[in-house]
Amino acid sequence: MQFNTLSPIYLQIAQYMHDLILNRVWKDGERIPSVRDMAMELEVNPNTVIRTYALLQEEGTLENQRGIGYFTAKDARSLVLKKRRERFLKKEVPALFLTMETLGLTMED
After folding, report:
1. What is the three-class DSSP state of 26?
2. Is 43 a residue whose pLDDT tops 90?
3. Is 50 within 8 Å of 2 (Cβ atoms)?
4. Distance CA 86, CA 48 (A)
5. DSSP-based three-state secondary structure for 72
6. Higher pLDDT, 91 or 8
7. How far, rounded to the nearest angstrom, does the alpha carbon of residue 86 sit from its chain's CA centroid?
8. DSSP, res 66
């Protein structure tokens, strides 16, 4: 995974994990890699992965089963899909229309 300097690494990892869920690489209710395994795979500090997992747990996408590991929530895909749709409608669509206006483009173009 290539990281950029535009946002914190843990947020970029969260987006990557959202992509895995949306693309059904990780299915609802499925066990995911441990913190250590994910840190090794992404070549980041385990504390960064812990921060990512905590964020995803807080939003309801991941569940921690003590002594067993982390799992995607039973409705993880629908949660991620809802979150992405909201972000698209609130941030990306308005930005698109602003760019169109700046460039003098119309819907017919």
Report:
1. coil
2. yes
3. no
4. 26
5. strand
6. 8
7. 13
8. T
**CA-based max dimension of the chain:** 58
76-100 pLDDT, tens digit per residue, is 999 999 999 998 899 888 888 888 8
Round to whole Å and give the CA distance between 10 and 50.
9
Residue 42 near residue 12, CB atoms below 8 Å: no
The owner of tokens 């990306």 is: 92
Place of tokens 């460039």: 103
* SS3 state at 65: strand
Tokens of 68: 């067993």
Secondary structure (H, E, C), 46-89: HHHHHHHHHHHHHCCCEEEECCCEEEECCCHHHHHHHHHHHHHH
Q: What is the pTM of this model?
A: 0.83
Locate 55 and state its tokens: 């964020």
Please name each of the domains of the chain with its CATH number: 9-103 (1.10.10.10)
What confidence score (pLDDT) does residue 10 get?
A: 98
